[in-house]
Amino acid sequence: MENTRPTHKPGQRTIDTVLLIAFFTALAFIILVPFISIVLTSFKDSSQIIRNGFNLNIDWKNLTLDNYRAVFAGDNEYFNWFKNSLILTVVQTVATLFISAWVGFGFAFYDFKGKNFLFVCVLIVMMIPFEILMLPLYREIIALNLTNTYIGIMLPYLAHPIAIFFFNQYLQGIPREIIDSGRIDGCSEYGIFLRLILPIMKPALAAMAIYVGMFSWNNYLWPLLVLRDTAKYTLPIGLTSLMSPYGNNYQLLIAGSVLSVLPIMILFFSAQKYFIEGMTSGSVKG
Amino acid sequence: MTKKKLDLNSPKVAPYVFILPFFLIFAIFFVYPICSTFVMSFQSVNINEVHFVGLANYKALFGSSTFPIAIRNSAIYTLLTLVILIPFPILLAVMLNSKAMRGSGFYRAILFLPILCSVVVAGMTFRFMFNETDQALVNNILINLFGGEKVRWLSLRWPAMGVMVTLATWRWTGINVIYFLSGLNSIPVELYEVSEIDGANSWQKFRYVTVPLLSPTIVYVLTISIYGGLSMFVESQMLWAGKTSPMNIGLTIVGSIYQKGISQGELGYASAAGLFLLAVVLIINLVQLRLTGVIGKKEA
Question: Model pTM?
Answer without folding.
Answer: 0.91
